[in-house]
Every structure is written in C-alpha cells, then in structure tokens.
Amino acid sequence: MNNRYHIQTYGCQMNVHESEKIAGILEARGFTSCDDVSDADIIVLNTCCVRETAETKVYGHLGRIKSQKKNGAILIVGGCMTQQDGAAERLAKRCPFVDIIVGTFNQSQIGEYIDEFLHTGSRVIDIWKSEKDGGAQGVHKSVAARTSGINAWVNIMYGCNNFCTYCIVPYVRGRERCRPIDEIIADVEALLKSGYKQITLLGQNVNSYKYQDKTFVDLLKMLEFDNKYRLKFMTSHPKDISLELAELFATSKVLSKNLHLPVQSGSDRILQAMNRHYTRDQYFQKISAFRALVPDIGLSSDVMVGFPTETEEDFLQTIDLVEKVRYNNLFMFIYSRRSGTPADKMPQLDYTTKQQRIDRLIKHQFEISKQIASEWVGRTVEVLISEKNGSKCFGKAQNDAAVSFESESANVGDFVNIKITSAKNANYKGEVVYE
C-alpha cells in the first residue's frame, strides 16, 4: 500500500464537513489524500439520500470505480443513503465489490473497520440505528483534515425534529442533539487562532439549538470575539427564527449580513401539506423584520417545485412570494420523491409539469437577481478574498454576493473594500478602494 485515500462527497455542507472528519481519521493513520481514484488505497463515498438523483449518482459512480480502482484498494460507502432501512443490504447485494458499508452514526469507526477488513479479509457491514459511545460525537472529536480554504465548518447540533413530509433526514440522522456550548466556543477559538477567517455553524435547524439554558442567539453572542472574521450559519427554519436574531444581525460585528431562510413554497396549502408549521404571511413578517433592521441584508432561500398535489394556483403563489421578497439568490429544486416519507404516498405530478414550472421560476429569479445586482453598482462593499489567480481576486461581500477584482498586493484571507463597477447577472466586478 502507498497509503493514499480518495473521498467522494455527495450532498450538503454537513456531509462535506463529515468527509473532512473522515479524512482526519485516515490521516491520523498515515494516509494522504489523492485526487485520482485509481491511485487510492482507500476509497470512501460519503453519500446523500435527500433526492433520488443523489442515490442514482452514487450507483453510477460505483460502477465506474469498479473498473478504475487498483487491485487491493478498499472501497467504503457510508452516509445518509446507507442509513436508510434496507439500503445497506441492497447495496451489498448489488455491489459485492464494496468492502465496507457504514451509516451516519458510526463513521467514526471507519479506522477500526479498515483494520478488521485487513485482518479478516471479510466484508464489514455495520449500520447503527442510533448513537453509541463514540458515535457521532466520536467522529466529531476526530481532528478534521479541513479542505474548505478560509472557511471552517463547525457542527453545533446533529439530527432534526421537524419531519417535513418530503424529507428523509430525520430518519437517517436521528433526533436533534445539541453539542455543549463550551465545546463549540473552544472549537471556534482554536480555528480563529489557526488563521481561519470565516466560521460556518452547521445544523439541520440551527435556530432550535438549545443547550441547558442557552439558545442559538446566546451562542452567537458568545462568539462575538474581537477577531476580524465572519460568522455564518446554516440552515434556518422559518418557524424558529426570531426577532432577537434580527436585532443581533443589526448590531453584530462578526455576523455575515446574509440570511438563508428556506421557504419551500408560497402556498399555505402546500406548506401545510409539507408540515412546515408557518404560513406565507408569517414568513413575510419575519423577512420584513430583518429587512427593517438590516436594509442591505442578502437573502437566499430554497424553493421546491412540483410537490404532490401542487396546482397552477399554488405555483403562482410561489412566484408571487419570490417576486415580493426579491431574493439575492434562490436554490430551486424539482420535488423528488423519497421512499419512507409521507409525501411519497401522496398523488404525484408528472415530470413535464414540474419541469415547465421550474423553468418559469428560474426565469423570474434570474431577472430579480440581475436587477438587484445592478442596484449595487457604484456602492462600496467589504470583500473577504477566498481565491486568487495571478492578480485576479475572488471573494464574497457581506451580503454573500460574489465579487471579483484585480489586486497585486491583496491575498487570500484579506478583507478588502471594493467599489462595484459592474454587475453581470448576480456576479459583481469592482476595484479596490484605497483609504
């Protein structure tokens, strides 16, 4: 063995960060990362199952890996897809060349499973139904091999209690478990000392964080350090977001002035069918509270098109909401049915209708984003540089807008004041403002 590993990650930022933790486990055992799967001695697929397309991609990738992986390489599949009831058994039968199969609760054991496989030569298939000693907390305590540049992910909680009717997450991630607040603070302090300039707090619903008598807003206030850095979080649920959080946005020196607040639909009937626990009017009220206190806030959201029983009138209400809120950025998805969720048993829409609707929504949002971008031309924003190629710098403004500019002296991790000189779609170009 040359002791090289390759990790393929699917899905959300939570999975990205968990892959960093798996990489940390492997590197502690003497392995180093490689980009080419054919060079790897250990191949890990960290899977997603939120949408059916993610699962299809995994099987397609496994087919390619079978022919590409070198003799003796150990192939591991874990994550949300394998945590589903019966999924590990189906995978084992369909892909006998997969050596180790784990779920979401026992990824911290990957090192031990590799040892067991090397010792016995027998496949390891182990899916925990809940946390045991050293489970999700164990994988958290491993030293992550971070790959996210100036940004570092920090889990503040695991699992979800919301049970949206379209979502598989509570079934594969379990109920909400919040990390101790002192551990989170210690993690952030250590990352800032290591030079990270942006920290992103992770949870399926960060606004429901509660540890003893401390809330999510209490946690954010305790992370208001003197260091020059940006603090972000994802994801928020509209039912739990508070006026107190909006007030903190207005006064905080570290919070990024960007809020991702998934609405999913603009129809009260569909929101109820989704089990979202808020109405469109309640959503508008919360958006208005943030905009009143932070006028330049960047807003983004998730919208699902084609949920079961969605009518043309329901869809038009979503279009209406999008036009009234005027999001800077919108992540738009066609509903994908997931076995094991209540929505899977509801009357389904045909694919053509769903595709036509999302095409219409994309067109509306494109015009909104383009108009918002044009309104920022001539203004000065603070940009955190995340990438540099020659003299070309790329980064994000406080409202999460992507900005590019030229600078010989600026470096990755610098905060630079940039005057926006032009905007194409949602991408801004600018020039350095010298004081």
Outline the secondary-structure elements:
Layout: E1 4-9, H1 13-28, E2 32-33, E3 42-47, H2 52-68, E4 74-79, H3 80-83, H4 87-94, E5 100-102, H5 110-120, E6 124-126, H6 136-141, E7 151-155, E8 157-158, H7 169-173, E9 177-178, H8 181-193, E10 198-202, E11 210-211, E12 214-215, H9 216-222, E13 230-234, H10 243-251, E14 258-260, H11 268-274, H12 280-293, E15 298-305, H13 312-325, E16 329-334, H14 351-375, E17 380-389, E18 392-397, E19 402-406, E20 415-424, E21 427-432
Helix pairs in contact: 10-12, 13-14
Explain this structure to me?
- By secondary structure, the chain is of the alpha/beta class.
- It has 14 helices and 21 strands.
- The strands form 6 sheets. A 6-stranded parallel sheet has the order 2-1-3-4-5-6, with helices on both faces. A 5-stranded mixed β-barrel has the order 17-18-19-21-20.
- Helix 10 packs parallel to helix 12.
- It is globular.
- The termini are far apart.
Give a short summary of the structure.
By secondary structure, this protein is α/β, with parallel strands linked by helices. 36% of the residues lie in helices and 24% in strands.
Give the low-confidence spans: 133-140
| Number of β-strand runs | 21
Give the % helix: 25-40%
What's the tally of helices? 14
Main beta-sheet strand count, sense and barrel state: 6 strands, parallel
Question: What is the strand arrangement across the widest sheet?
Answer: 2-1-3-4-5-6
- Please state the structural category: alpha/beta
> Based on CA inertia axes, which overall geometry fits?
globular
Distance between the termini: 55 Å
Approximately how much beta-strand content do the residues carry? Answer: 15-25%
